[in-house]
Specification:
The complex is a heterodimer of chains A (330) and B (297). Chain A has 330 residues and is an alpha/beta fold. In chain A, 32% of the residues lie in helices and 25% in strands. By secondary structure, chain B is mostly helical. Classes of the chains: A alpha/beta (330), B mainly alpha (297).
């Protein structure tokens, strides 16, 4: 690996600062705002060029909302997102549309993310048309090339999405995201709707594409082992906040936050002889409309202290490239 | 190779069996016998309307006071009315009026209703509130009553009856489209379209509108039936076509005093109305089966 690649690896492509996305709760005849669901509440992280950054957490922890807020598919309530040096949170819609060339998304459900009334050729060509790229003949050439890159053939172009299997559809969705040669791809649970046997195919494809095209991924998943396989750095979210963030090796090897520890202990081991201590959390995840004060995890934390009920912990370094938001380590 | 050579062993099909959503729908429709009967009836009436000058043995305006209220016979197949006009010829020409009113008023309702519904559904907020309340107000009046009020304001004529019927049916299509857009807006492929950097106008025209077409076509077909009945009702009340236009509803009302003496004067216009409406309803139901996803299993 040459030094320039190492250099590139250090460069920050995406910088998220105190990102908040709240949804209003409306009630009554007048639809007055009576509260807020804090889906994402002060999330900060950085993604380096060329890396895969994983976001894990249970359903409802705000990881998908984070992904969509990054691309402003949902308007964030507060905070800053800088992409490639440009602040996209304050950007007006015209320049944002232009910038969308560089940041794409892959969705969870390949049965929902493709318009059922469009042929594959149209689905793949449309991004180029929208951004005014190339003439008709060049566009068709590019469509055929990208389709081949994701492992499908040109004779399937005139088919409709319903004529493909789930794995093939996800390949088409990936192809669509690649059409504009983006720098960043936010993949929101890209394999969780697929059969396990297809999952690894799609993950390998995404991995290959990253090397070929120099992509950067924000990879959102609830499956810890998939993230471990795919990502270099991982953030663990709980109730709209990042509780732990670190290099894959140290986060999976020495999880610091009690929530991460509990989460990791729930992953079944492929070795039947392995003695693993399963940490079982008590209670339910509190509602994000009414999050606990202080540390959001204190209601279920086996090691909760007085300070946890009063003061909100911030992300602090515990070792090189490993941070956690927990009072146990401050 | 980290990437298994993808399941591409299937050879390219020589006979391209591309099944588009529309051709699938047509295949399903053809299997529905009742719907095909409905289509047959509609085609039959369209042909009659198109060939009216060649089919009608008499001029629909031509009076023959010597031949008043004649029962059906070899010369006057459907008999004659109180002014001695040939009922068969009047019905043949009346087909043109009914179909014209049905199709054009529904097209008008669809155009306005779809526009309002899409705007209300996609942009939401106060735009939606205003448009939806407008629909509610229009729907609060019984359809025919509202049409009567509109025609009374505009003055009785076939064209004004048509406009009135179109206005009355706008909220039907508007609400349908709004509801469809509300659900489509949450579809992931719409989010995907936005993430690709598409403008709202393109999303609406290329992604939302084509997916609304199924319910619009279904409702439109059923709406033609309603519009024909409403036009006949307005005609019956003397608020639609003016004499001597051979409008079916008007023919009914002109002849109702002779119903005992000469039942054929009301029988044939009544049958014509019933048959066209039946045709559109059968076809509409058939279309719903194949185009409306809620009915699909």
């Amino acid at each position: 690996m040459s030094a320039s690649i190492l250099q590139d690896k250090q460069e920050t492509l995406l910088e998220v600062e105190e990102l908040c996305t709240y949804f209003p709760i409306r009630s009554g005849v007048m639809q007055r705002e009576s509260g807020q669901v804090k889906a994402v509440d002060g999330v900060s992280f950085q993604v380096r060029r060329g890396e895969s950054f994983g976001i894990v957490g249970e359903s409802g922890c705000g990881k998908s909302t984070t992904g969509r807020s990054l691309l402003r598919l949902i308007e964030p309530t507060a905070g800053k997102v800088r992409f490639d040096g440009k602040d996209i949170t304050g950007m007006e819609s015209g320049s944002l549309r232009t910038l969308r060339r560089d940041m794409q998304m892959i969705f969870q459900d390949p049965f929902a993310s493709l318009n059922p009334r469009h042929r594959i050729s149209k689905i793949l060509e449309e991004p180029l048309i929208v951004h005014g790229i190339g003439k008709a003949a060049q566009r068709r050439e590019r469509v055929a090339k990208v389709l081949e890159t994701v492992g499908l053939s040109a004779w399937q172009l005139e088919r409709y999405p319903h004529q493909f299997s789930g794995g093939q559809r996800q390949r088409i969705a990936i192809a669509r995201a690649l059409m504009l040669e983006p720098k960043l791809i936010v993949a929101d649970e890209p394999v969780s709707a697929l059969d396990v046997s297809i999952q690894s195919q799609i993950l390998n494809l995404m991995q290959d594409l990253r090397e070929q095209m120099g992509l950067t991924y924000v990879f959102i998943a609830h499956d810890l082992s998939v993230v471990k396989h795919f990502c270099e750095r991982v953030a663990v979210m709980y109730l709209g906040r990042i509780v732990e963030l670190g290099d894959k090796r140290s986060l999976y090897g020495q999880p610091k936050h009690p929530y991460t520890q509990a989460l990791l202990s729930s992953v079944p081991s492929p070795n039947p002889g392995a003695v693993s201590e399963r940490i079982i959390l008590q209670g339910e995840v509190p509602s994000p409309a009414n999050a606990p004060a202080g540390c959001v995890f204190h209601t279920r934390c086996p090691q909760a202290m007085d300070i946890c009920r009063q003061e909100r912990p911030v992300l602090k370094s515990v070792s090189q490239g490993h941070q956690t938001a927990c009072h146990l380590y401050s | 190779m980290s990437q298994p050579a993808v399941q591409m062993s299937v050879p390219p099909p020589s006979h391209a069996e591309v099944s588009s959503p529309w051709s699938d729908a047509w295949r399903g429709f053809r299997r529905n016998r009742l719907a095909m009967i409905g289509l047959g009836i509609i085609v039959f009436f369209i042909l009659i309307a198109a060939c009216a000058p060649w089919l009608a043995p008499f001029d629909y305006k031509e009076q023959d006071l010597m031949d008043r209220l004649k029962a059906p016979n070899g010369e006057h197949w459907f008999g004659t009315d109180d002014l001695g006009r040939d009922i068969f010829s009047r019905i043949v020409y009346g087909t043109r009026i009914s179909l014209w009113v049905g199709f054009s008023s529904v097209l008008g309702s669809i155009a306005v209703g779809t526009l309002l519904g899409i705007v209300a559904g996609y942009y939401g907020k106060w735009v939606d509130t205003i448009i939806s309340r407008l629909f509610d107000i229009l729907l609060a009046f019984p359809g025919v009553l509202l049409a009567i009020a509109i025609v009374a304001a505009l003055g009785p004529s076939l064209q004004n009856a048509l406009i009135a019927i179109a206005i009355v049916n706008v909220p039907v299509f508007g609400r349908l489209v709004r509801a469809k857009v509300l659900s489509l807006r949450e579809e992931e492929y719409i989010t995907a379209a936005r993430s690709l950097g598409m403008k709202n106008s393109r999303i609406l025209l290329h992604h939302i509108l084509p997916n609304c077409l199924g319910p619009i076509i279904v409702q439109g077909t059923l709406g033609i039936a309603t519009a024909i009945i409403e036009a006949a009702a307005l005609g019956f009340l003397g608020l639609g076509a003016l004499p001597p236009e051979p409008e079916w509803g008007k023919m009914l009302s002109d002849s109702r005093q002779f119903i005992q003496k000469a039942p054929w004067t009301v029988l044939f216009p009544g049958l014509s109305i019933m048959l066209t409406v039946l045709g559109f309803n059968l076809m509409g139901d058939g279309l719903r089966d194949v185009l409306d996803p809620r009915m699909k299993s």
